[in-house]
Protein backbone atom coordinates (compact mmCIF):
# COMPACT_ATOMS: atom_id res chain seq x y z
CA UNK A 1 0.00 0.00 0.00
CA UNK A 2 1.28 3.50 -0.83
CA UNK A 3 0.09 6.81 0.63
CA UNK A 4 0.24 9.97 -1.50
CA UNK A 5 0.91 13.43 -0.10
CA UNK A 6 0.30 16.87 -1.60
CA UNK A 7 2.31 17.51 -4.75
CA UNK A 8 2.14 13.80 -5.64
CA UNK A 9 4.92 12.95 -3.17
CA UNK A 10 4.93 9.29 -2.19
CA UNK A 11 5.09 7.93 1.33
CA UNK A 12 5.49 4.24 2.07
CA UNK A 13 3.73 2.40 4.86
CA UNK A 14 5.39 2.01 8.25
CA UNK A 15 6.47 -1.54 7.41
CA UNK A 16 8.09 -0.31 4.22
CA UNK A 17 9.77 2.72 5.78
CA UNK A 18 11.49 1.09 8.73
CA UNK A 19 13.84 -1.19 6.72
CA UNK A 20 14.78 1.80 4.57
CA UNK A 21 16.00 3.71 7.60
CA UNK A 22 13.11 6.10 8.23
CA UNK A 23 11.44 5.83 11.58
CA UNK A 24 7.69 5.74 12.04
CA UNK A 25 6.52 9.22 12.98
CA UNK A 26 9.26 10.94 10.97
CA UNK A 27 11.86 11.20 13.77
CA UNK A 28 14.50 9.55 11.58
CA UNK A 29 16.78 6.55 12.11
CA UNK A 30 20.29 7.03 10.88
CA UNK A 31 21.27 10.16 8.99
CA UNK A 32 24.10 12.61 9.55
CA UNK A 33 25.36 12.33 13.13
CA UNK A 34 28.03 14.46 14.76
CA UNK A 35 31.26 12.50 15.25
CA UNK A 36 33.44 15.25 16.62
CA UNK A 37 34.34 18.92 16.55
CA UNK A 38 37.36 21.01 17.35
CA UNK A 39 37.96 24.63 18.21
CA UNK A 40 41.20 26.01 16.86
CA UNK A 41 44.35 25.32 18.92
CA UNK A 42 47.73 26.73 17.91
CA UNK A 43 46.27 27.49 14.48
CA UNK A 44 44.99 23.95 13.89
CA UNK A 45 41.46 22.53 13.79
CA UNK A 46 41.93 18.88 14.74
CA UNK A 47 39.12 16.31 14.94
CA UNK A 48 40.54 12.91 15.89
CA UNK A 49 39.40 9.45 17.04
CA UNK A 50 36.77 9.37 14.31
CA UNK A 51 34.83 6.11 13.93
CA UNK A 52 34.92 4.34 10.57
CA UNK A 53 31.93 5.64 8.58
CA UNK A 54 31.20 5.22 4.89
CA UNK A 55 30.74 8.97 4.34
CA UNK A 56 31.74 12.16 6.15
CA UNK A 57 30.40 15.70 5.93
CA UNK A 58 32.61 18.52 7.17
CA UNK A 59 31.54 22.01 8.24
CA UNK A 60 34.30 24.55 8.73
CA UNK A 61 33.82 27.87 10.53
CA UNK A 62 37.33 29.07 9.72
CA UNK A 63 38.43 32.45 11.08
CA UNK A 64 41.78 34.10 10.35
CA UNK A 65 43.98 36.35 12.45
CA UNK A 66 45.58 39.51 11.04
CA UNK A 67 47.64 37.57 8.48
CA UNK A 68 46.70 35.71 5.30
CA UNK A 69 46.48 31.97 5.01
CA UNK A 70 45.45 29.13 2.68
CA UNK A 71 43.10 26.33 3.77
CA UNK A 72 45.05 23.07 3.99
CA UNK A 73 43.78 19.64 5.08
CA UNK A 74 45.60 16.58 6.34
CA UNK A 75 44.04 13.18 6.99
CA UNK A 76 45.26 10.78 9.71
CA UNK A 77 48.19 13.18 10.33
CA UNK A 78 49.81 11.88 7.12
CA UNK A 79 52.79 14.13 6.32
CA UNK A 80 53.81 12.33 3.12
CA UNK A 81 52.91 13.61 -0.36
CA UNK A 82 49.86 11.36 -0.62
CA UNK A 83 47.46 14.15 -1.60
CA UNK A 84 46.21 15.60 -4.88
CA UNK A 85 43.84 18.54 -5.28
CA UNK A 86 42.06 20.35 -8.10
CA UNK A 87 40.45 23.71 -7.35
CA UNK A 88 38.93 26.77 -8.95
CA UNK A 89 38.77 30.18 -7.27
CA UNK A 90 36.05 32.62 -8.38
CA UNK A 91 35.32 30.48 -11.44
CA UNK A 92 38.86 30.78 -12.83
CA UNK A 93 40.71 27.98 -14.63
CA UNK A 94 41.41 24.96 -12.44
CA UNK A 95 44.74 24.62 -10.74
CA UNK A 96 46.17 21.35 -9.42
CA UNK A 97 48.55 20.50 -6.61
CA UNK A 98 50.25 17.30 -5.40
CA UNK A 99 51.64 18.07 -1.94
CA UNK A 100 51.88 16.74 1.60
CA UNK A 101 48.37 18.10 2.25
CA UNK A 102 45.21 18.90 0.30
CA UNK A 103 45.36 22.59 -0.58
CA UNK A 104 41.61 23.25 -0.55
CA UNK A 105 41.84 27.02 -0.70
CA UNK A 106 44.74 27.35 -3.08
CA UNK A 107 44.68 31.15 -3.11
CA UNK A 108 45.55 33.03 0.07
CA UNK A 109 42.47 34.45 1.74
CA UNK A 110 42.12 37.96 3.04
CA UNK A 111 43.59 39.12 6.34
CA UNK A 112 41.28 39.03 9.38
CA UNK A 113 38.48 37.38 7.43
CA UNK A 114 36.29 34.35 7.94
CA UNK A 115 35.47 31.43 5.65
CA UNK A 116 32.77 28.77 5.61
CA UNK A 117 33.53 25.32 4.18
CA UNK A 118 31.11 22.50 3.38
CA UNK A 119 32.66 19.26 2.10
CA UNK A 120 32.01 15.53 1.67
CA UNK A 121 34.42 12.57 1.91
CA UNK A 122 33.93 8.96 0.74
CA UNK A 123 35.73 6.64 3.15
CA UNK A 124 36.26 3.06 1.96
CA UNK A 125 39.52 1.80 3.46
CA UNK A 126 40.69 -0.02 0.31
CA UNK A 127 40.03 2.95 -2.01
CA UNK A 128 41.68 6.32 -2.34
CA UNK A 129 39.63 8.75 -0.25
CA UNK A 130 37.82 11.13 -2.62
CA UNK A 131 36.32 14.35 -1.40
CA UNK A 132 34.90 17.59 -2.74
CA UNK A 133 33.51 20.80 -1.34
CA UNK A 134 32.84 24.50 -1.57
CA UNK A 135 34.24 27.45 0.36
CA UNK A 136 32.94 31.01 0.72
CA UNK A 137 35.35 33.65 2.01
CA UNK A 138 34.31 37.04 3.34
CA UNK A 139 36.91 39.36 1.84
CA UNK A 140 35.79 42.57 3.55
CA UNK A 141 32.75 44.66 4.37
CA UNK A 142 31.03 46.02 1.26
CA UNK A 143 32.83 43.56 -1.05
CA UNK A 144 31.37 40.49 -2.77
CA UNK A 145 32.63 37.26 -1.16
CA UNK A 146 35.06 34.89 -2.87
CA UNK A 147 34.21 31.31 -3.75
CA UNK A 148 36.26 28.13 -4.19
CA UNK A 149 35.16 24.73 -5.44
CA UNK A 150 37.56 21.85 -5.00
CA UNK A 151 37.93 18.12 -5.55
CA UNK A 152 40.66 16.20 -3.80
CA UNK A 153 41.93 12.79 -2.77
CA UNK A 154 44.04 11.13 -0.13
CA UNK A 155 45.86 8.32 -1.97
CA UNK A 156 45.82 5.82 0.89
CA UNK A 157 44.27 2.43 0.09
CA UNK A 158 45.07 0.66 3.36
CA UNK A 159 43.39 2.62 6.14
CA UNK A 160 40.04 4.13 6.96
CA UNK A 161 39.95 7.79 7.88
CA UNK A 162 40.18 8.57 11.61
CA UNK A 163 41.46 12.15 11.82
CA UNK A 164 40.89 15.43 9.93
CA UNK A 165 43.05 18.51 10.45
CA UNK A 166 42.75 21.93 8.81
CA UNK A 167 45.43 24.58 9.19
CA UNK A 168 48.00 26.65 7.32
CA UNK A 169 50.61 24.01 6.50
CA UNK A 170 52.27 26.03 3.73
CA UNK A 171 54.36 28.20 6.04
CA UNK A 172 52.89 31.44 4.64
CA UNK A 173 52.01 34.33 6.92
CA UNK A 174 48.93 34.21 9.07
CA UNK A 175 46.99 31.56 10.87
CA UNK A 176 43.60 30.65 12.29
CA UNK A 177 42.65 31.97 15.71
CA UNK A 178 38.91 31.27 16.11
CA UNK A 179 36.04 29.17 14.75
CA UNK A 180 35.64 25.41 14.65
CA UNK A 181 35.63 22.28 12.49
CA UNK A 182 32.66 19.89 12.75
CA UNK A 183 32.74 16.36 11.30
CA UNK A 184 29.52 14.43 10.64
CA UNK A 185 29.24 10.80 9.59
CA UNK A 186 26.76 8.56 7.79
CA UNK A 187 26.76 4.80 7.33
CA UNK A 188 24.10 2.45 5.93
CA UNK A 189 24.14 0.47 9.18
CA UNK A 190 23.43 3.49 11.41
CA UNK A 191 20.37 3.29 13.67
CA UNK A 192 20.82 6.38 15.85
CA UNK A 193 18.07 8.95 16.36
CA UNK A 194 20.24 11.94 17.39
CA UNK A 195 20.62 13.42 13.91
CA UNK A 196 22.77 16.55 13.65
CA UNK A 197 20.38 18.34 11.29
CA UNK A 198 17.07 19.15 12.99
CA UNK A 199 14.07 20.38 11.01
CA UNK A 200 13.30 24.00 11.94
CA UNK A 201 10.67 24.89 9.34
CA UNK A 202 8.70 23.24 6.55
CA UNK A 203 6.16 25.37 4.68
CA UNK A 204 4.26 24.45 1.52
CA UNK A 205 1.98 26.87 -0.30
CA UNK A 206 -1.62 25.69 -0.34
CA UNK A 207 -2.51 28.18 -3.08
CA UNK A 208 -0.69 30.56 -5.42
CA UNK A 209 1.06 33.36 -3.56
CA UNK A 210 3.79 35.93 -4.18
CA UNK A 211 5.45 35.10 -0.85
CA UNK A 212 6.74 31.78 0.47
CA UNK A 213 7.91 32.29 4.03
CA UNK A 214 9.55 29.89 6.47
CA UNK A 215 7.97 31.80 9.32
CA UNK A 216 10.03 32.39 12.44
CA UNK A 217 12.29 29.49 13.43
CA UNK A 218 14.79 28.84 16.21
CA UNK A 219 18.19 30.45 15.59
CA UNK A 220 20.99 27.95 14.89
CA UNK A 221 24.66 28.38 13.99
CA UNK A 222 24.49 26.15 10.92
CA UNK A 223 21.54 26.25 8.51
CA UNK A 224 20.69 24.03 5.55
CA UNK A 225 17.87 25.33 3.33
CA UNK A 226 16.09 23.77 0.35
CA UNK A 227 13.60 25.68 -1.79
CA UNK A 228 11.46 24.38 -4.66
CA UNK A 229 9.20 26.85 -6.45
CA UNK A 230 7.17 26.94 -9.64
CA UNK A 231 5.93 30.03 -11.46
CA UNK A 232 2.32 30.72 -12.48
CA UNK A 233 3.20 33.30 -15.13
CA UNK A 234 5.99 34.61 -17.30
CA UNK A 235 9.07 36.26 -15.82
CA UNK A 236 8.72 35.09 -12.22
CA UNK A 237 11.87 36.16 -10.34
CA UNK A 238 11.85 34.55 -6.86
CA UNK A 239 14.38 36.28 -4.58
CA UNK A 240 15.51 35.21 -1.10
CA UNK A 241 15.78 37.52 1.90
CA UNK A 242 16.51 37.08 5.61
CA UNK A 243 14.51 38.42 8.56
CA UNK A 244 12.35 40.61 6.29
CA UNK A 245 15.41 42.70 5.42
CA UNK A 246 15.00 44.14 1.90
CA UNK A 247 17.59 46.91 2.35
CA UNK A 248 20.97 46.93 0.58
CA UNK A 249 22.62 44.54 3.03
CA UNK A 250 23.45 41.71 0.60
CA UNK A 251 26.45 40.98 -1.64
CA UNK A 252 26.94 38.03 -3.99
CA UNK A 253 29.22 36.40 -6.52
CA UNK A 254 27.68 34.08 -9.09
CA UNK A 255 28.22 32.13 -12.28
CA UNK A 256 25.43 31.05 -14.59
CA UNK A 257 25.99 27.96 -16.79
CA UNK A 258 29.75 28.11 -16.22
CA UNK A 259 30.19 31.68 -17.42
CA UNK A 260 32.70 34.06 -15.84
CA UNK A 261 31.78 35.24 -12.35
CA UNK A 262 29.73 38.38 -11.86
CA UNK A 263 29.30 40.26 -8.59
CA UNK A 264 26.60 42.41 -7.00
CA UNK A 265 27.13 44.55 -3.91
CA UNK A 266 24.76 46.69 -1.85
CA UNK A 267 22.01 44.44 -3.17
CA UNK A 268 18.52 43.89 -1.75
CA UNK A 269 18.43 40.07 -1.77
CA UNK A 270 20.47 36.92 -2.39
CA UNK A 271 19.63 37.11 -6.11
CA UNK A 272 17.14 35.13 -8.13
CA UNK A 273 18.91 32.08 -9.56
CA UNK A 274 17.81 32.92 -13.09
CA UNK A 275 14.06 33.25 -12.61
CA UNK A 276 11.34 30.96 -13.97
CA UNK A 277 8.46 31.23 -16.43
CA UNK A 278 4.93 29.91 -16.37
CA UNK A 279 4.93 26.23 -15.39
CA UNK A 280 8.71 26.20 -14.93
CA UNK A 281 10.38 25.27 -11.67
CA UNK A 282 13.49 26.06 -9.65
CA UNK A 283 15.32 24.09 -6.96
CA UNK A 284 17.75 25.90 -4.65
CA UNK A 285 20.11 24.42 -2.03
CA UNK A 286 21.83 26.67 0.52
CA UNK A 287 24.23 26.19 3.45
CA UNK A 288 24.63 29.13 5.82
CA UNK A 289 26.98 29.98 8.68
CA UNK A 290 24.82 31.98 11.07
CA UNK A 291 27.10 33.52 13.72
CA UNK A 292 25.45 36.51 15.42
CA UNK A 293 28.39 38.93 15.30
CA UNK A 294 29.71 37.95 11.84
CA UNK A 295 28.33 38.67 8.39
CA UNK A 296 26.30 35.62 7.37
CA UNK A 297 28.01 33.59 4.62
CA UNK A 298 26.03 31.44 2.17
CA UNK A 299 26.97 28.65 -0.28
CA UNK A 300 24.15 28.59 -2.82
CA UNK A 301 23.43 26.25 -5.76
CA UNK A 302 20.43 26.55 -8.06
CA UNK A 303 18.96 24.61 -10.98
CA UNK A 304 15.98 25.83 -12.99
CA UNK A 305 14.25 24.75 -16.18
CA UNK A 306 13.46 28.18 -17.59
CA UNK A 307 15.05 27.08 -20.87
CA UNK A 308 11.94 24.94 -21.40
CA UNK A 309 10.46 21.69 -20.13
CA UNK A 310 11.17 18.27 -21.63
CA UNK A 311 14.34 16.28 -22.22
CA UNK A 312 15.21 18.39 -25.27
CA UNK A 313 16.01 21.40 -23.07
CA UNK A 314 19.00 21.24 -20.71
CA UNK A 315 18.34 23.01 -17.40
CA UNK A 316 20.17 26.13 -16.28
CA UNK A 317 22.56 26.14 -13.31
CA UNK A 318 23.83 28.83 -10.97
CA UNK A 319 26.77 28.52 -8.59
CA UNK A 320 26.76 31.35 -6.11
CA UNK A 321 28.11 32.61 -2.79
CA UNK A 322 26.36 35.30 -0.83
CA UNK A 323 26.55 37.24 2.37
CA UNK A 324 24.11 39.15 4.53
CA UNK A 325 25.97 42.06 6.12
CA UNK A 326 24.17 41.92 9.45
CA UNK A 327 26.45 41.59 12.48
CA UNK A 328 23.81 41.97 15.20
CA UNK A 329 21.25 39.22 14.61
CA UNK A 330 21.03 35.58 13.63
CA UNK A 331 18.79 34.51 10.76
CA UNK A 332 15.42 33.39 12.11
CA UNK A 333 13.24 33.78 8.99
CA UNK A 334 13.79 33.14 5.28
CA UNK A 335 11.40 34.47 2.62
CA UNK A 336 11.08 33.74 -1.08
CA UNK A 337 9.20 36.52 -2.82
CA UNK A 338 8.37 37.61 -6.35
CA UNK A 339 7.19 40.99 -7.62
CA UNK A 340 5.89 39.53 -10.90
CA UNK A 341 3.07 36.97 -10.95
CA UNK A 342 3.01 34.34 -8.18
CA UNK A 343 4.42 31.01 -7.05
CA UNK A 344 2.21 27.97 -7.50
CA UNK A 345 0.60 25.86 -4.82
CA UNK A 346 3.06 23.13 -3.80
CA UNK A 347 6.05 25.50 -3.74
CA UNK A 348 7.97 24.61 -0.60
CA UNK A 349 10.76 25.75 1.72
CA UNK A 350 12.49 23.53 4.27
CA UNK A 351 15.02 24.65 6.85
CA UNK A 352 17.26 22.42 8.98
CA UNK A 353 19.70 23.68 11.58
CA UNK A 354 22.23 22.79 14.26
CA UNK A 355 24.52 24.46 16.77
What key attributes describe this structure?
355 residues, mainly beta, Jelly Rolls, 3 domains, eight-stranded antiparallel sheet, 1 helix, globular
Describe this structure in words.
The chain is mainly beta and 355 residues long. The chain has three domains: 1-30, no CATH class; 37-186, Sandwich (Jelly Rolls), CATH 2.60.120; 197-354. 1% of the residues lie in helices and 48% in strands. The strands form five sheets. The protein has an eight-stranded antiparallel β-sheet with strand order 3-14-5-10-11-12-7-8, with no helix packed on it. Strand 10 (114-122) and strand 11 (129-137) form a beta hairpin. The longest helix is centred in the first third of the chain and has 4 residues, at 14-17. The model is unreliable at 1-27 (pLDDT under 50).
What is this structure's SSE topology?
Elements (H helix, E strand, L loop, with lengths): L1 E4 L3 E4 L1 H4 L15 E7 L5 E3 L7 E10 L4 E7 L7 E7 L5 E3 L4 E8 L4 E9 L6 E9 L8 E9 L9 E4 L8 E11 L11 E7 L6 E3 L8 E9 L8 E4 L7 E7 L5 E6 L13 E9 L6 E9 L11 E9 L9 E4 L10 E7 L1
Antiparallel strand pairs: 1-2, 3-14, 4-13, 5-10, 5-14, 6-9, 6-13, 7-8, 7-12, 10-11, 11-12, 15-25, 16-24, 17-21, 17-25, 18-24, 19-20, 19-23, 21-22, 22-23
